[in-house]
Amino acid sequence: MAFSSPISNDELRDYYLIQKVSRKLGTYQNGAELWSNDFWVGVGTGALIGGAAGALVGLGGAFVTGGLLSVAGKAAADITSIALFGTSYESFGDYLLGEWQNYGVAFAVGGLLKGLPLEGIFGATGGTIVKFAGEVGLQPAFSQLATMGVTPGTSFNVISYTMTVITRAATFGISTDSNIMSEMLGYAIMKGTLRGFANGIINANL
User: Fold this and answer.
1) How many other C-beta atoms are found inside a 10 Å radius of the C-beta of residue 189?
2) Residue 6 in 3-state DSSP?
3) pLDDT tens-digit map of 87-118
4) Share of the chain above pLDDT 90, in %
5) Using an 8 Å Cβ cutoff, are 42 and 96 in contact?
6) Is the sign of the CA dihedral 206, 135, 39, 29 positive or negative?
7) Which of 118, 139, 165, 203 has a 20 to 30 Å separation from 192 between CA atoms?
């Protein structure tokens, strides 16, 4: 009997392409001396983010939907914050280069939280707790760690992390659970906009 792989060749190609691009971005943004420790940290961070995102693309379905909704929420948060309070980025290119790893983390974490049957594994209450921990606590922590990995000289900002956790906790109740994509997208953008407004106020006063 012939063995049939659950992942197609096209999905494997997408996985390796995403991982390769992320690895290159991590190396370029890292800007460290060739073959130095910082260089390899940047390469490794980029490969890890790309591998996680590529794996979710391969899984498809709710994993990709959750990842895209998370990315849309981050984009809405950033646009709101930048529009109202400005930014230190000098151009859109600088913004993309400075934030790509955070979008990668958003896609990976959002995809896992949406795609995995958490309520079936942990029960209704347990599933909600795991989603809360992932969205509110883990995603901003992973984002800071990813930024540290691709940007030498940066450190974990406890104050920024704490404020981000508070704003995420306050908006966690805006659920994106729906069977209609437009409704899910609307909820994600609403949640991101509120978070962007709160984060902009906080960052302006730090």
Assistant:
1) 19
2) coil
3) 888 888 889 888 988 999 999 999 999 999 99
4) 45
5) no
6) negative
7) 118
What's the CA gap between 75 and 89, in Å, rounded? 15
Angle 36-42-46 (CA atoms, 0-180°, nearest 5)? 150
Q: Which two tokens stand for residue 41?
A: 């940290």
How far is residue 33's CA from residue 73's CA, in Å, rounded to a whole number? 35
How does pLDDT run across 142-155, given as a tens digit for each residue?
A: 999 998 888 878 89
- Residues 25/4, Cβ–Cβ less than 8 Å: no
Q: What token pair was written down for 126? A: 């347990």
Determine how many CB atoms are found less than 10 A away from the CB of residue 183.
12
pTM of the model: 0.79
Do 26 and 47 touch, CB atoms closer than 8 A? yes
Torsion of CA 160, 72, 115, 52, to 10 degrees: -70
The number of angstroms, rounded, from the C-alpha of 21 to the middle of its chain's C-alpha atoms is 16
- 191 contact partners, CB below 8 Å, separation of at least 6: 73, 76, 171, 174, 176
Question: 87, 66, 84, 91: which is closest to 188 by C-alpha?
Answer: 66
Which amino acid is residue 82, in one-letter code?
I
pLDDT surpasses 60 at 70 = yes
Q: Say which DSSP state 174 is in.
A: S
